[in-house]
Write a structure and sequence with these properties.
Layout lengths: L1 E3 L2 E3 L14 E2 L20 E4 L9 E2 L4 H11 L6 H10 L2 E2 L4 E2 L9 E3 L11 E3 L19 H8 L29 H8 L4 H10 L10 H6 L12 H4 L8 H7 L7 H20 L2 E3 L13 E5 L2 E2 L13 E2 L2 E6 L4 E11 L2 E11 L4 E7 L4 E5 L3 E9 L2 E9 L9 E2 L6 E2 L10 E6 L10 E7 L1
Parallel strand pairs: 4-5, 12-13
Antiparallel strand pairs: 1-2, 1-5, 3-4, 6-7, 8-9, 10-17, 11-24, 14-23, 15-16, 15-18, 16-17, 19-20, 19-22, 20-21, 23-24
């Protein structure tokens, strides 16, 4: 996937055959392959990989063919959003030691921590040491074409456990259990929105959820959309899926029964789900005309923020690229502050904030999405306490201008340094917020926050 004069382009399947030269060549036709008859790997098809400079007017990022196919399946029926995905890669620091993009996680075990003496808010992931025996691990197993899948789907189901409930099912509702007022079908529908461990725990707390264990519809939902088993997409797509014993299939696909190839697919699939959360974010363009007065003093809190990307090799291994900033005046009478958070790597970051006034005015800065929003009520805004790490801002506490009290945290402040630098004690006149991505790009952590005294 590379950028050029025509925009963001997906190539065909190439093959990296010349590591000494370091040249990446792939057919420009996305439907072509390196081994197609007549394809001669011309130099004009070369593009720069994971660099800030261009080769033949192109630079980009490479994906393993099987992993890209899994990515396409995860986004079906929509196509993979190339522009958003490219900008996501473009905003992530490049770890030159591991020659990999530093997403702040260990790639599901593929990377290791470089230095055990790191502080809690630091990450130091790098590639595992390359060894010959690496080829005999789950990370080298093909995650796409897996013969084991057919064997699992063809296995005849065994008799389920007896339908024995520890509760005495009664038509009379219990005053201590509000779910007894609901029909069984509605309890089953609720269960489909919950993680499987939560549903199994709910069965122990309420007899209304006991029958969910015997519901084929519930177990089928674990394979459709839920990250629990959606990595086994063949179960839904194959013929005869409607008559499948989904509970038995769920039991057949517990971790200790999976081969290396399915374990590798599950690992990659869970990483893809993190990307899916990020791409649903939408940029909120602030209204024009809300410029603050000049000549005031600004107070800054930020992570390891760099506001310009070099043309050559990147020196940024931890932190974020500030690609966009917004400076606005804050309206009077802020009565509610909201924040949208996103998981990036193994941490959570503020992706955008919203300031609502008692008169109904709403000022949104940064990104928002369908979920991941939390809010606090105020009588006025007099600053913030901020949890901030190298990668950006993890959480905010708002200071009430009338009571002086601090709100609950918006975001996750765990294992992050906290500062009262922005707890001004007086009305906040303006904000400047910096983000590590451009319009509709990712991963959108709020990297800096300035307040105007």
């Amino acid at each position: 996937m590379y950028s050029c004069a025509d925009g963001i382009v997906l190539t065909g399947v190439g093959r990296y055959t010349d590591p000494r030269r370091g040249a990446f060549i792939a057919p420009q036709d996305p439907n072509a392959r390196w081994d197609d008859p007549g394809y001669e790997h011309p130099d004009e098809d070369e593009f720069a990989v994971m660099r800030r400079f261009e080769t033949n007017g192109r630079r980009g990022y490479i994906f393993h063919d099987a992993c890209w196919s899994l990515l396409q399946r995860a986004f079906r029926p929509a196509p993979v959003p190339l522009v958003r995905l490219f900008e996501a890669c473009d905003s992530v620091p490049l770890d030159l030691v591991g020659d990999a993009l530093n997403w702040g996680h260990d790639y599901g075990g593929l990377a290791v921590v470089r230095d055990a003496d790191l502080l809690p808010w630091e990450d130091g992931f790098t590639d595992r040491e390359f060894l010959e025996e690496w080829f005999d691990t789950l990370y080298s197993a093909d995650p796409l074409t897996i013969p084991e899948v057919d064997e699992i789907l063809a296995e005849p189901p065994r008799a389920p456990p007896g339908n024995q409930s520890p509760f005495t099912i009664s038509a009379a509702p219990s005053g201590n259990d509000p779910f007894t007022l609901l029909p069984v079908e509605l309890c089953s529908a609720i269960a489909e929105y919950l993680p499987t461990p939560d549903v199994l725990n709910a069965r122990l707390a309420s007899k209304s959820f006991w029958q969910v264990f015997y519901s084929q519809q519930f177990w089928a939902s674990r394979f459709r959309g839920s990250p629990d088993r959606s990595w086994l997409f063949e179960a839904v797509n194959q013929k005869g899926a409607t008559s499948r014993d989904w509970r038995w299939l769920y039991r057949c696909t517990v971790d200790h029964r999976l081969g290396r190839a399915l374990q590798n697919r599950k690992r990659i699939w869970h990483l893809i789900q993190r990307v899916a959360v990020l791409v649903e974010l939408r940029w909120n363009q602030p209204p024009a005309g809300l410029l603050p007065e000049e000549g005031r003093e600004w107070v800054l809190v930020a992570g390891n923020m760099v506001d310009r990307q070099p043309e050559g090799f990147s020196h940024l291994q931890q932190g974020c690229w500030q690609l966009r900033s917004i400076r606005v005046a804050i309206p009077d009478g802020v009565s509610q502050v909201s924040a949208w958070t996103v998981p990036v790597g193994d941490r959570e970051y503020i992706a955008g904030i919203s300031l609502d006034t008692a008169s109904g005015e709403v000022l949104r800065l940064g990104y928002s999405r369908a979920g991941g929003r939390s809010s606090v009520r105020l009588s006025g805004l007099a600053g913030f306490n901020v949890a901030v790490g190298l990668g950006g801002i993890h959480a905010l506490q708002c200071i009430d201008s009338t009571t002086g009290e601090t709100s609950a945290w918006l975001g996750c402040p765990d294992n992050a340094p906290k500062t009262e630098r922005l707890a001004l004690g007086v009305r906040v006149a303006a904000l400047e917020v910096g983000f590590d991505v451009g319009t509709s790009s990712l991963p959108p952590s709020c990297s800096s926050l300035l307040t105007l005294v």
